[in-house]
């Protein structure tokens, strides 16, 4: 039986279908995955031009197809996700599940390996990358990750991969990467009103060997190695960017780490009432932005801020003191309550987002578990202030980076 799961969903007028193929994260794999995604998004053998491919989906009531490589810890997941109107909504005899599915797999399974398409795709990627790194915050995060994974180079590129490979990749390399994908662990997931019919229609297309392999990974999270590093770069920016990275032990409770990190991000920088927002932006008047992000798959908790350069040392002290106070058991119970409410509200809203629901199914497939929104909400409700203190005590400052 192929790795296939289509859930019943009567809440939405749209259905979704995603095929996900997994390969290990390396800079080369990520670069080739980005190139392949750009090529397949533009043209395929079935639809050998941008216009033809776009028209084929437009004729299916503007069906959307997103082809992107996504990084989950130590894995790259090549994601092909279609969203389309349920046929029952339009009552058009020419618009059926069969037509949608055949178009979907025509694009996935019939890539066009043509030199001109490769060069156009590489050029587009290079332009997107240049615009991406024009933003100092993005550049700062890339430098931060390069430092964090300085002894684990396979993990230092989480967005684009090896930039030189994007420039120099040959057609045979992309073709070989696609062949490797067809033998890699794969899973097909979806949500539809008529889940049984969609399952029966999709099943014959899943003839690649990867669909019969185990998709779950024993350990998808990348461990954080305690080895403090401090670095800075100078670009004469108007603002200073500070990124502080804390690591935590993946061998500890997964529930404590996952929900502790999510709640701490809300507690420190979730809204205008959060701890760092009040201290840095309102009281000190130093910050243009403040963020705290939990990277569960990287065993990493990151606090970043863009600030007035003259207040660099003060902001540094505020951030370290805020974390230190939590580690010593000093917690604002009102803020903790707000953090819990915000996270529960996010999960309640997410239940009505088919895209997020599909990502949850994918995450469960990768980890070999069944974490529903209801279970997530119950974990948050049971999470105590003492639990948040306990999680904060697991954190160790591992990197401080400045872009000035």
From TrEMBL:
The record's InterPro entries line, in alphabetical order, gives: Metalloenz_LuxS/M16, MPP/UQCRC_Complex, Peptidase_M16_C
Q: Which residues form the Peptidase M16 C-terminal domain?
A: 170-343
One matching Pfam family is: Peptidase_M16_C
What SUPFAM superfamilies is this protein classified in? LuxS/MPP-like metallohydrolase
- State the family named in the UniProt similarity comment for this chain: Belongs to the peptidase M16 family.
Q: What is this protein called?
A: Zn-dependent peptidase
Annotated source species = Lactobacillus colini
